[in-house]
Description:
Protein name (chain A): Auxin-responsive protein SAUR41
Structural class of chain A: alpha+beta
CATH architecture of chain B: 4-Layer Sandwich
Radius of gyration of chain B: 20 Å
Structural class of chain B: alpha+beta
Keywords (chain A): Auxin signaling pathway, Cytoplasm, Developmental protein, Growth regulation
Strand order of the largest sheet of chain A: 1-3-2-4
Shape of chain A: globular
Strand content of chain B: 25-35%
CATH class of chain B: Alpha Beta
GO cellular component, one term (chain A): cytoplasm
Largest interface: A-B, 29 and 34 residues
Strand content of chain A: 5-15%
Order of helices and strands of chain A: HHEEEHHEHH
Subcellular location (chain A): Cytoplasm
Number of helices of chain B: 8
Number of domains of chain B: 1
Largest sheet of chain A: 4 strands, mixed
Largest sheet of chain B: 7 strands, antiparallel
Distance between the termini of chain A: 24 Å
Number of strands of chain B: 16
CATH superfamily of chain B: PPM-type phosphatase domain
Number of helices of chain A: 6
CATH topology of chain B: Phosphatase 2c, domain 1
Oligomer: heterodimer
Shape of chain B: globular
GO biological process, one term (chain B): negative regulation of leaf senescence
Helix content of chain B: 25-40%
Radius of gyration of chain A: 15 Å
Order of helices and strands of chain B: HEEEEEHHEEEEHEEEEEHHHHEE
Amino acid sequence: MKHLIRRLSRVADSSSEFSIRRSTSSFRNRRGHHRLHAPPPPWSICPARRVNTVPAGHVPVYVGEEMERFVVSAELMNHPIFVGLLNRSAQEYGYAQKGVLHIPCHVIVFERVVETLRLGGFEGSGDLENLVASLLSGDELIPETTE
Amino acid sequence: MVKPCWRIGAGMERSKINPTKVDGLTWYKDLGLHTFGEFSMAMIQANSVMEDQCQIESGPLTFNNPTVQGTFVGVYDGHGGPEASRFIADNIFPKLKKFASEGREISEQVISKAFAETDKDFLKTVTKQWPTNPQMASVGSCCLAGVICNGLVYIANTGDSRAVLGRSERGGVRAVQLSVEHNANLESARQELWSLHPNDPTILVMKHRLWRVKGVIQVTRSIGDAYLKRAEFNREPLLPKFRLPEHFTKPILSADPSVTITRLSPQDEFIILASDGLWEHLSNQEAVDIVHNSPRQGIARRLLKAALKEAAKKREMRYSDLTEIHPGVRRHFHDDITVIVVYLNPHPVKTNSWASPLSIRGGYPMHSTS
């Protein structure tokens, strides 16, 4: 676990080029109908603090110790990398957590992972590939209880 | 109106006679006819492999006494894998018929013996498979069985599924819970375990804000879960998360069902039998109100949808978006859910339907992503 946290921190340090603002605009573009040449991105993320209702096709999540609220597309939830994040959540809080799902991950890492997914995957992004490998492997990430 | 034209068959042949439907992750039989009235069944998968199983059997309940006619309903909520719930669905009803044939009648003892022998035989299978498939020792299932016969309803329960009777009362319907549950988050179940294991300070441990037996499992009785019944399985190569740090001599979980017997009255309209996946989102009264106020056709699917809408609401998302979430990932939003609604008529629907027994099995095979 310590190994994973170190890795998360390292990735977090190099992720400043990805911003919430960019994520927000991509979400708006997805809702538009007049984009040429660029199909709507399959996945999007936006901060939901100022959004009263969750947009159609999206699921809210709380991220990190600071419980920052985001909405992510329902489709993104099915991505193996996101499944890794959800399994971390179940391992930490169980399946029966009340209300919005809480993902135990640094906000800045979460943003970078989702943004990378949105832009077309993890090819050529060594740090993130390693991060994902960490997320998806190891017994420690399988929920320890049986239901 | 569905005509009572069913015959017992096997596999695909049977499903042609008793058409059931699959829609994505949902399996259902919107309306059918059992010995004492109509029924409706529905299931939805949340785990990557469907762990719930269910069945309804209607007709003779013994091999040797054709006057003992009735309806058997089973809801089996598996955990750790689908093997235990599938084993119950394959075995418990034939065992019930076998024991009922010995005394030529249905009784509490007959049902309890069917549970005990099903558990014993599953543990034999675990022993046999231990060298090649040791993880079978950590597979288990809740088992809820209802038998309607001779104006009585027997509800036998091991685990935390639930049976609720809808009884008409002053223009409405009142929920009467018929099952006794075994879940560590019920005070009665905790007291039972503490009194059975007074010298084990870690028999119950709070984890993720929920009580769990040995910090692992919420149910306090089950079929299977060999690793908590026999110390011989508490070792490698069982996964470390299932291995207990200390040796034990007395079984930690038991397979004994709690049995209730209720004499049916004309006010008793229907019984809902469902896995805990339904009851974590709907109260007993909410469920009976839905059944009382809705058409019979598709009532089980209606209950399922009501539970899923509630699950989506709790996660602050839309029901329509929940349906986009794949099995496995779904488990973070709701559990596998099985619901069977059995409507009650005081007398057998048609005398000649006795010659046409009914057998429907739900939950296998379902979608698998693993």
